[in-house]
């Protein structure tokens, strides 16, 4: 992906919808991510973290508020400015660098934790991006990964007609054509979801790149925080029955992994 210094329409929409969301409103999501990470790796004031694709910057800002270090990498200058405006309300200055993942030098063996939350669907050359993340992690470092799931019946990318909840099922070129027709060609700059992933595809790639431990969302699920009794039942059965696990991962609302180098 290229950096676009001009205001892209999808970024304008995103900022309009999210600029007034407070850090307090994001606190539960922040805690959930940290809880998942801390089950497999300690996080304290000395832990070096980076978030890829910071959006409005709420994760690095909440890290600051909680005495943690988290740098950010963001492709949109306007989103970085938005994060600064939000941070100013709390007397915080976010440490967010402008750059795209495919080309930015993250260094080697630099970070203990890399957060990739709802960003890789927008990384055009995603395998190159994952390789960058792997190289940037210290030995024993952890990647938290969450993104789209192709066969989910819900989508955070698009939920309007005529997809009837099956947006992700469409072949890539059909999805691109649909979004361009609705939102204009501008959507291909920073707004489109280039990829609708599958757990099996991601697992193979993470293992190929060299992660020694790759845990999917069933393995990562914490019984104390699963949101409903039905979901908890699905998780428990998925752990016992391989076919149930395959079914649950196929139709889950998102892909989610914890990967250790």
**Biggest pleated sheet:** 7 strands, mixed
Widest beta sheet: strand line-up: 3-2-1-4-5-7-6
Number of helices: 11
Our estimate of the beta-strand percent is: 15-25%
Report the count of strand segments.
Answer: 7
Helix content: 40-55%
The secondary-structure class comes to: alpha/beta
What is the H-and-E element order? HHEHEHEEHEHHHEHHHE
Low-confidence stretches: none
Shape verdict:
globular
Distance between the termini: 26 Å
Structural commentary:
It is a single chain. This protein is of the alpha/beta class. The protein is built from 11 helices and 7 strands. The protein starts with 8 loop residues before the first helix and ends with a strand. The mean pLDDT is 95.
Descriptive keywords:
16% strand, single chain, seven-stranded mixed beta sheet
Quick take:
The chain is α/β, with parallel strands linked by helices and 261 residues long. It has eleven helices and seven strands.
Strand and helix map with partners:
Blueprint: H1 9-18, H2 23-38, E1 48-52, H3 58-65, E2 69-74, H4 77-88, E3 96-98, E4 111-117, H5 126-136, E5 137-147, H6 172-183, H7 187-190, H8 199-209, E6 213-216, H9 217-220, H10 229-240, H11 242-251, E7 255-260
Parallel strand pairs: 1-2, 1-4, 2-3, 4-5
Antiparallel strand pairs: 5-7, 6-7
């Amino acid at each position: 992906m290229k950096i676009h210094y001009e205001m892209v329409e999808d970024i304008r929409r995103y900022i309009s919808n999210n600029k007034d969301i407070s850090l307090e409103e994001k606190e539960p999501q922040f805690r959930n991510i940290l809880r998942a990470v801390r089950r497999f790796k300690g996080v304290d004031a000395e832990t070096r973290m980076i978030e890829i694709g910071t959006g409005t910057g709420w994760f690095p800002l909440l890290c600051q508020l909680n005495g943690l270090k988290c740098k950010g990498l963001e492709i949109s200058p306007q989103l970085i400015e938005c994060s600064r405006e939000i941070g100013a309300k709390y007397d915080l200055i976010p440490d967010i660098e402008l750059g795209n993942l495919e080309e930015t030098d993250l260094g080697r063996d630099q970070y203990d934790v890399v957060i990739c939350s709802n960003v890789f669907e927008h990384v055009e050359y995603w395998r190159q991006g994952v390789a960058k993340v792997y190289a940037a992690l210290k030995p024993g470092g952890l990647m938290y990964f969450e993104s789209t799931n192709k066969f989910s019946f819900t989508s955070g990318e698009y939920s309007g007609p005529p997809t009837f909840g099956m947006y992700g099922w469409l072949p890539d070129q059909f999805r691109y054509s649909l979004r361009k027709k609705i939102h204009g060609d501008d959507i291909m700059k920073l707004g489109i979801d280039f990829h609708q992933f599958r757990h099996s595809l991601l697992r193979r790639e993470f293992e190929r790149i060299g992660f020694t431990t790759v845990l999917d969302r069933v393995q990562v699920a914490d019984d104390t925080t699963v949101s409903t009794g039905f979901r908890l039942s699905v998780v428990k059965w998925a752990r016992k029955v391989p076919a149930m696990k395959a079914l649950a991962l196929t139709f889950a609302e998102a892909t989610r992994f914890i990967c250790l180098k």
